[in-house]
């Protein structure tokens, strides 16, 4: 026990941490142990130290008085609730610790019940040392000696203010987007349902507008996701100003927003939509960078001739938004409820894509797949682009959705395989021995003649071994006909072609059907990888997927590696295979051999070691600390309503540090360094928040950079903590 408890805790540590530190001092140890028979019978008599452990582990405040109510001892949770030092509480009568606004009848009733029933419970107002009034729940229990005389009274105190604050915080995060502070999908649907009910009763009309930013991906690709997030926050502040007080705008995720507009006639509605277009397209200055995007808006109205629900309204506005994209972007389109999909536009789109195939306007770019530890380039993913003569280079989302399920999709898919095989021949001739993965749509994969077409394409390129071709299928589409897809995968394996499950983890039946899909590789969806550095939930999903891959003996490839830090964390988790913009952007096939010869992984990747499973909580604690810092930055930079827990031992990292972390690593010399760095971060963070609340925002923002330096020192100490642990 002494070895495990080595080290010091901050003076303001919570009761949960106190349980693991040192031997308590004070009257309670001797007195409770002496009254072991009355308090706990044989249990405490056999193990008197259990009383002190319970005393210090309790999260509630614990107060011990003599039989007349004079305080003999209290735990530190009680001193934190009351705001008094322990020495200021000992020797006082318990009634002096409440607010003074209760009459004598309260104490008379309390002592009467303690005398008759040995128990009293109620809510009372207490007063802290600084004079602040706050409500607490108080439970008093009489402890009697063997002769039946009341020897002690034991009080348990819970601060109701903290519970209410936690309830409000949970309510906030369940209804609002954590990045922008706008309502999330849950709150949007609630408000949309209420608005639908209101307009039916009043005979009015509501408008649902689905907004998708144009050019946002280019911002992320060029400047990184941190800048992209700043842009989203800036636009989320600006767009509500284009609306009225009765309207709602919510963020669904990514760069998608939905506005619910009440009681708009045609002219007023057009004015509001025009203001939204302007709000989204005006330049945004972020530091020295000027960014500018636009927005495509899909609009639908309610009520309609046919009854629709809230989900249908959202789908209708989404479809109309897509039409706005096709129409040239930076515009809005109205959904026609009598025509769920504009067939004329789709026919025109299909005809134009067929013409593009004939004119050879489609090209393939290739994104390398590498082993981050060894630096080996083992493959590349083929990604289609449309070199449109008028609109420039178009990404797949701009032209693939309209052809889904159509025969032209099969023609385009066969062209992609043919072009990839031809590129493989050129690479092999140039000395680059790599494989290529090609994305397959569900419609193409499930056609009866798929295997026949694939064999024909391979036969036209005899110098390419089938094992150099890998076919990627999206997990959700594979589940549409699990038996057929499984048969196709088996047939491909017989001729040497490999399969990978793409975007793994986003489907609905991953655990149920994984064993029935004999794919060689699992590609972890980039959304989990991208946000794993500061989102513990995404990290948990990623770690779970890696466990599945190991259990089913599949290779795991992480998509979305954008920074050196992403690679380091993946290597610590045991994932070595990856692709992403932090490694290389998609490039023309002719450029890949030169890139592969020149590319070297960051030095830190070659030295990063896999973390033992028992040390994974350290990695999660590190990510939770990043999330805490990000929330703090949101408060300082963007005026978020609620700051994260600011007490040194109330944040999730602190709870780990003074709980499981101390138990597992408390005897390591670097543990004290971790404690020190964590305390310094909280001290600096509180200083920054004070500046924010004082209106000195510029100074608060300028000091945020010092938190990054302290964070780096903390993370280095954490790495030392793991390295120092014996294997």
TrEMBL record:
It comes from the Bacteria. CDD domains: EAL, GGDEF, PAS. Residues 1-14 have a biased composition (Basic and acidic residues). Gene3D superfamilies: 3.30.70.270, Aspartate receptor, ligand-binding domain, EAL domain, PAS domain. PROSITE patterns: EAL, GGDEF, PAS. Residues 1-27 are annotated as: Disordered. Residues 54-102 form the PAS domain. Pfam families: CZB, EAL, GGDEF, PAS_9. Residues 346-600 form the EAL domain. Transmembrane segments: none annotated. Residues 204-337 form the GGDEF domain. This is EAL domain-containing protein.
